[in-house]
Amino acid sequence: MLKKRAITALWGLPLVILAVWFSRPEYIFPLFTLLMAVWGALALLEFYRMTGVFRSAPLTGFGLGMVLLFISSAHCTFPSVLPLMLTLTVVISLVIIVFSGQKEGIFLVWAWTVGGIFYIGWLLSLLVALRLEGMSAFPNAGRNLVLLALAST
After folding, report:
1. 3-class DSSP state for residue 127?
2. Rounded alpha-carbon distances, angstroms, from residue 113 to 68, 102, 105
3. Is residue 56 classed as helix, strand or coil in its secondary structure?
4. Quick one: which of 109, 84, 86 has its CA closest to 96?
């Protein structure tokens, strides 16, 4: 298992560094955001596999969709996007579990679903927002802060 993770790090780390370095906020194609969306989807699937949410297909699909929305929300200029997305995540997931036929352990599955969305989606959206940050005096501040965050973890 450790060998697989080391091989993944050998090709994944240069890809992330290149995406951080060459993706600029003013570009039409947000390379860094796209990479974070793919990374977030894979991380959420791994999280759901470890916690057992993977057995509930509607909640897995909903979780993937919400993680992608959280990550792309960093590009949104609407000021209340975060409270709206937090509310939608809780309300829609509760509606899904109320109308699902599953009764055994559904609250635990719901808690892991919402926890995964907030943990992975929200944190990666903050990383994308950090990359988009730039001040007029320091145009590469966002890039440098993301590289610092990646180097320190």
Report:
1. helix
2. 14, 15, 13
3. coil
4. 109
Q: Which two tokens stand for residue 146?
A: 């993301």
Decide: residue 133, CB within 10 A, 0-12 exposed, 13-18 middle, 19+ buried.
middle
* Confidence band of 84 (pLDDT split at 50, 70, 90): very high
Q: What does the block give as tokens for 119?
A: 């943990």
Three-state secondary-structure class, residue 119: helix
Euclidean distance between CA atoms 51 and 94, whole angstroms: 18
Q: In a 3-state reduction of DSSP, which class is residue 102?
A: coil
For residues 113 and 54, what is the distance between their CA atoms, to the nearest angstrom?
9
CA 149 to chain centre: 16
What value does the mean pLDDT take over residues 37-45? Answer: 93
